[in-house]
Amino acid sequence: MANKLKKVAVFAVAAVLGATVVGAAACADENQFEVVPGGVMLEGNQTYRTYTSVMPSNWNELTYEDNNDTQILNYLTSSFYEFDYQFEDGKKYNADGSVNYDGIIADGYTVNYSAATALEDVTEEMAADWGYTEKQIATGGYAWKITLREDLKWDDGTPIDASDFEYSMKEMLNPDFQNMRASTYYNMIQVRNARNYLYQGQSGWFAAADPYDDFAALVAEQGDKVFFSLASPEENTANFGSAVCNFRTAFGVPAEWTAKQIATYLVETGVNCKADATVDEILALEGKSYNQIIADANLKKTWEAVLATWKTVDNEELDFFLVDYTYPELSYDEVGVQAVSQYEIVICLDAPIQCLDEEGNLRYEAAYSLQSLPLVKEDLYEQCKQQPATGSNLWTTNYNTSVETTASWGPYKLTQFQSGTSYTLSRNDNWYGYGDELYKNQYNVKDIYCMRIEDVNTQWMAFLGGMIDSIGLDPDHKDQYRNSAYTYFTPGTGSFGINIYANLEVLKTNGRNNGILAITEFREALSLGLDRDEYNTETSTSHQTCLGIMGPSYYYDIENSATLEDHGVYRESKYAKEGILRAYGYTENGDGTWSFGTTKYDDYEAAYAACKGYSPAAAKELIEEAYKILTENAAEYGYDSSKQITLLYGTAADNANTRRAYEYVRDYITDLVKGTSLEGKITVNFDASFGSGWADDFKSGAYDIADGTGFGGGAFDPASFLQCYLDPNAGLMYSTWWDTEKEMLTYTMPEGDYEGAGEELTMSLYNWYCCLNGIAEANEQPNLYNWGAGFVSEEVRLQLLAKLEEVVISKYYTIFTTSQYSATVNGAKWSYASEDYNVFLGYGGYRYMILNYGDKEFTEFVHSQGDNLESLYQRSR
Amino acid sequence: MYMFKYVMKRIGLLIMTFCIIMVMCFVLIKMLPITVNIQMGQDANIMYNRLEALGYIQNAHQLANGTWTYDNVPVMIQLGTYLRRIFLEGDFGMGINMPEYRYQPVLDVFVEKLPPTILINIYSTLIGVPIGLGLGILAALKKNKWQDQLINVVIILLISLPSIVMGLIIQYVFCFSLGWFPLIMNSGYNYFSWSMFRSMLPAVFSLCFGSIAGYARFTRAELTEVLTSEFMLLARTKGLTRGQATLRHAMRNSMVPIFPSILSEFVAVLSGSLVIESMFSIPGVGRLYLDSINSLDYDFFMLLSGFYTLVGLAAGIIIDISYGFIDPRIRMGAK
Fold first, then answer.
1. What is B108-326's CATH number?
2. Which of A66, A401, A458 lies at the smallest CB-CB distance from B183?
3. ipTM > 0.95, yes or no
4. DSSP letters spanning A458-524
5. Where are the domains of chain B?
6. Nearest CB to B194; choose among A23, A255, A731
7. What average pLDDT does chain A have?
8. Largest CA distance in chain B
9. Residues of chain B with C-beta less than 8 angstroms from the C-beta of A702
10. Is residue B207 over pLDDT 70?
11. Using the beta-carbon criterion (under 8 Å), do A392 and B181 form an inter-chain contact?
């Protein structure tokens, strides 16, 4: 019996092995491409096959979190207004109805109605209901009425009307869900009461200045419940939920300072003046309500002494108090997105946008800022809502996370999805566009089949074997494919730099003896001592040198790009170039010539062409100056000459890339101080322990050099991009110690016909930023000029933008180094509509792709090339 | 009876050990600081509100330097909540942070991703064990002859090559150049179709070549030792042929350490191979565990910790019991 069993076992194993080998051999001649795409040959003959390293998981417009999710989401939605190519003589179609690809104007674009049929500025009509002032009515752009097409449908044929958009916005702002994307409607476009609706019911201890702006009103309302506090979060844990007063935030007090330390500072140093009180007297105010303070003569006197050290404008009393505040309940009727009829939506804003030109034509802003509103399918969305789990009170939803829970109103619909493996998007025959003249003979891609291929080598084998239709160019293949006829380069909006920690209060106490970082001359030396071209070559693959906040992808005037000499590109503009020159130490002579040191340039163009931001000699002089300042003010900078100055280079991870970048920075700083008084006195150390918390750690001063950090996005709105460096409330600034609400700038606005024209104005940097973006009123700034897009000429905005960029660069808190660039190799199966990159349409996308081979023809073509397209794809143009 | 008692005792210890490990895992993962990265246009308040609403943190607020701070909800309270959720509601939670699994029930994801990993490892074991043992036996029987030398060279070669290199060679030669196999595993859930099996083979070969070398080396060493034992001489002297003596006595004795190693390797590979799964796009659990720690996806981490801990502990018991079946002289729990 045992022998029989053994024989059976041996036979079974032999059978498995045999079957494996025979099976493999038998299939050796089979066409691998019929099997490879997930074992699925799609029915259509016009499939675009692509790949992703990370599969999307949540393509819900209300909650999506990153670009992985948008790879599906982008094709399930539509736009009210859409960009299109501009064609020569306006001739989009040939006589046979095909698209006139040859007539595409490379830099041109048009803005067209798509899901909407009309757009009207209804600020005046809405003024009574929404409280717009006469001035706001005159300005316009606060309220917009969008008229929808009447044939909008979901992919299952269910009609869509205005009430669906109202429902979706209500769900977007539903406080129970705390949806990730809700902030778009109060941070990006400022929908009336969007934030208040989302925040309703939130309660807790706040700095009084957060929810209130009028101290008298606060005191009248709840004088017994507003408490004085200078204490730290730890000290306030028990009584005030760790909340701290706004004085700490506004003045930049180190987080660990106690109330006693602040009181001592106010008595011994003060802000405007020293406090006329003792430390104990100030501490006696701690935890007292405002009414208690006012009722007691001694406390009142101390309070007035404290206030005198700080207050320069009205309502700064708020900065010393904490309040237990609950955001009041709000009816959705007060939120600025309402359906006013079956096919009409009105959007009411706090900050205006100008979507129409003087003739009533759509401006690019319509397709850029007011492109669409979130839309979910009501019945499906309600079914997908998930009650909070035990121990949680957060509602969630699995809407748009699988085929069953997905609804589309865009050109494609999701027809297959397997987590971690693949998905398929197929034509949505219920999309209005397929019957519209605007989209005639477009969207040749019938199906988009996406596989998850994580490994770069596998991606390349798949591409060269004809299994996928395009691939991103990576460093290992850069040299082979850079000049290929199939390679397309795309400038990105990402701009990166090296952030330097410069908060003296923290530097003095960090034990690294590096208070020198707070000296502007030293940081400027670090900037001028960096050879950015070499740095980018050594530390990246295709990125380019960038001397400013923004790279070459930013447009200050996209609407007039075709007629402007600089094509509306911010980086190419005269003012941006001059700002860069000034920031990097060039001086303008009265006769239009420019100088750097002893070198003279005929004009700003010549100077800009020579400006690389690299001048080792000037940098070494600045090092000497900085060292002099440091040694003469050693106590102020906490400098101990007997100790080494240590700069800590921090990163999230320890790998070849971070090591390479660190070594470059270490070596250039070492070279920079050679031959100066600092030679041998500076050490740059590496610390890769910061993990995912690297950004907060840098902001807290845990390390001093954060390399390769930056931001991207907003290519047509460079003024808004300044928020990354000037808006302390956006939570993006790395230089958190820089109080842009206090630092003042005096600047004379250019002449023109607008409010403030030709005036020399002094206001805080933040206030300038708000005015430039037309959000000064919404952010309750002292100066309320509206110089937002469409309200003053772009030339005026450009000049102010360039000035603010110059100010940011000149602080040297960030040494700007790099702008993003990427490349794609597009296979032979599909061609792009245009060889020229268009800022709005890229190379035409799926909409304009041209089919060269059907699915089966391409398989045969690949076979004819020996199943390896390497030599074909390496052919240069 | 003593065996039954022994097994019961081991199961009791298993439960206790499991509970201790799980509590430790829960406490340790909760000790890691939560990081929130704010992108342009996002509202930090929403991010922290979500974490508060999920019951992970409390008292979140912005500090003077612009960063946020918060207090952790006491770990034991969170543990109590978690246990209530598991035992009273059967709710293992939902993915929160991992980009590929947000808003997806962790149990569903795990159950969906386990079959490819298990299948690949079963195929790998089915192919690897007989070949590995066969080569080991042949090498032991032909010790120091040319067959043994050749097998040793192959073993050294296979052991020296990391699976990433082996995988790359297999993929380039057999999938890309010769086109014998698909480059990546097929989509779909029809795991027992021929097409799916064929698409798994490159990954299976990449995994099993290393195992083959390991088994062969181990078997050769054990068998060589047993073959020189005195009881083998006795077996031959009592009239058994060389084959009979080898099969009935030498093999059985050498299996005592080999069989547990096969079992433990199978258990170990249940956690998936990060490199091989990435290379052949296997939708398995390979990187799920690591990613759940990096992303602080607590529910995923706890489910995976629980599963692997349980499998590991259960395998320990099975391996111990298996000794008794392979070698009757070994009696677990007997006094």
1. 1.10.3720.10
2. A458
3. no
4. HHHHHHHTTSSSEEE--GGGHHHHTTBTTEEEEEEEEEEEEEE---HHHHTTSSS--GGGG-HHHHH
5. 108-326
6. A23
7. 89
8. 90
9. none
10. yes
11. no
